[in-house]
Amino acid sequence: MAYKLEPLERSFGAVITEINLVNIQDSDFDSLYSDWLKYALLIFPQQHLTNEEQINFAKRFGEMEYDISELSNVKKDGSVRDPSNDDYVKMLKGNIEWHHDSTYMPIQAKGSVFTAHTVPSSGGETGWVDCRASYAALENEMKEKLKNLNAYHSYEYSQKERYGHKSKEESEFSGYGFDVDPKPLRPLVKTHPETGIKCLTIGRHIYKIPGMEDDEARSLAKELEEFSLSNQEWIYHHNWKKGDAVIWDNRCLMHQACPWNYEEPRIMFHSRIAGDKSSELALNH
Fold this sequence. Notes:
Number of helices: 8
Shape: globular
């Protein structure tokens, strides 16, 4: 192994140094991929990847859901978006709630590469939580309860209904336009297709659980989320520095964006790796 790996003091995650992500030999990549499956989050300080280099790195992990997307509160003319009344900023704020990417799509994402190009003076961290560890720690009674339960996921719900808005014109639902019908149905407990480890699939996009009243379903989803956030060893927040890159396993980690002073610019780039249809396709497709 030609790089240096330092595990975080958590149930997951590692910092990788002494590596150039632009020129990884196949043998080193095989080792890196194995470490990614083990640690679920790999952090690469000060890589300063171009967009093309980021895409090329992400593609080594699988087919792409999309190559790259800018997550930024900065307009093309360089001005900062209105922090109080801009639809795109509202979408960014929605990401403050814990979630897995693309659970509201027919195929859940495999993972993501994220890079920092402009960072605010404080705040704006990204957090992850280990849903393998939280599932493993559940009482057997809860594991039995969850065994056959599935949940519908909806981006429209999480951006609109959670904020109490009644129409799309006045709602927070204005971002990706990825919401689909029928809403994807996913197990609350999934088995990771490559490691065989069970983990929770929960987060803000859940809005209904078949066989439960809506209030009961939302209460259970909240209970599982709060339990997953109850142990600091299962949570890590990364304080970004310009040039940092990370890749995480979306199949077993939830993540969140943290707020910052939205009058300050923050420019990040996100490359999303597509899930395998054989394991990440919703149950109702």
